[in-house]
Specification:
homodimer; 197 residues; mainly alpha; Arc Repressor Mutant, subunit A; Tetracycline Repressor, domain 2; 2 domains; DNA-binding (chains A, B); transcription regulation (chains A, B); TetR/AcrR family transcriptional regulator (chains A, B); HTH-type_TetR-like_transc_reg (chains A, B); Homeodomain-like_sf (chains A, B)
């Protein structure tokens, strides 16, 4: 009996994640409502909270999948990139931009989820982020062999944040109808300047 | 009579902006609700929509004031800066960071307000943004005298977006308890690299 209950619970969990994933990707994080989720999943609103502590937990489960897809895209781009470290950074940044453009609302949800003040990001988030940062740190280490580990770590975070900012504001403008085929040029411009040692 | 009605309307408008400004700065954009606003302003919910088309219009009125304060802070920092163009960029970026840190939720609201797809930013926003960009473009022109106008414009936007990304992700980490006294170092690191011609 316990096995059946656990299986039903797992099935509902998976189903809620899929429904929330589609809602977020089509309408954005702010469109997510417990009532609508329950109605689409064919369960009571209370059943959602038996499976997830609150809607934020559900969003985090969706975000874990989004982040994983993002990481896979960046890794795939890197696998095809030439050995040149600057070129590797540009190719990864372009993959990041492409993923963000093609999965705009899901990508926004990665960063827009509200955490209670003082609450740290979940472990899986830190791990995925750490993996992304390692991809960036490797070519930086080749470009700047003389910088110490701490400075390289700062530069890695600064570079990721810079590309993130360019993509974020660029896609905001794109959604407002401003042409942004120049996002790629801005990325290349900044990376070229940053990596010219 | 028409004068009295107009004056009452103007007073309600001003009052709603002040209430919304405080709500956003203390609790964030997502805490803004017409019912609460009406109750605090002592008016009917419908009266809000006589003055503002919708809540987004009210948020934009608050954002106009926030953006204006931000611009004034950056201008004040620039007025005290030395003639060195790289130094001017660092000082403006630090002023941007300081403003964002001290007015975190109001600053977030500048970028988090939802626009209908395809809807352009309002004119005042483009003007304030244009003014900020002019502050950045001037020292860049001194640093890169040989770049053409279009490339300088791209570099200006890229540089602003980069600093924005560093401040945004840095403050997110700070609100999650991660120590981020290193935001200033990341800003300096990126600017130093970008402006080394």
């Amino acid at each position: 009996m316990a096995g059946k209950v656990a299986a039903r619970r797992a099935a509902l969990r998976e189903n809620l994640i899929l429904i929330a994933e589609r809602t977020i990707s089509e309408k954005g994080l702010s469109a997510l409502r417990a009532r609508d989720l329950a109605s689409e999943a064919g369960c009571a609103v209370g059943a959602i909270y038996n499976v997830f502590g609150d809607l934020t937990d559900l969003v985090l489960a969706v975000n874990a999948r989004t982040f994983h897809r993002l990481g896979a895209d960046v890794a795939a781009a890197l696998a095809e990139a030439p050995q040149d470290p600057s070129e590797q950074l540009v190719i990864m940044a372009q993959a990041y931009h492409r993923f963000a453009a093609e999965n705009h609302l899901s990508w926004r949800a990665l960063f827009d989820v509200e955490r209670a003040p003082g609450e740290a990001a979940p472990d899986w988030y830190l791990q995925e982020m750490g993996q992304l940062f390692a991809y960036i740190a490797n070519p930086l280490q080749v470009i700047f062999p003389d910088r110490d580990a701490h400075e390289l770590e700062l530069l890695t975070r600064a570079l990721f944040s810079s590309i993130h900012g360019i993509v974020l504001l660029g896609l905001d403008e794109a959604s407002a109808g401003v042409p942004t085929d120049e996002i790629e040029r801005m990325i290349a411009l900044v990376l070229r300047q940053i990596t010219s040692s």
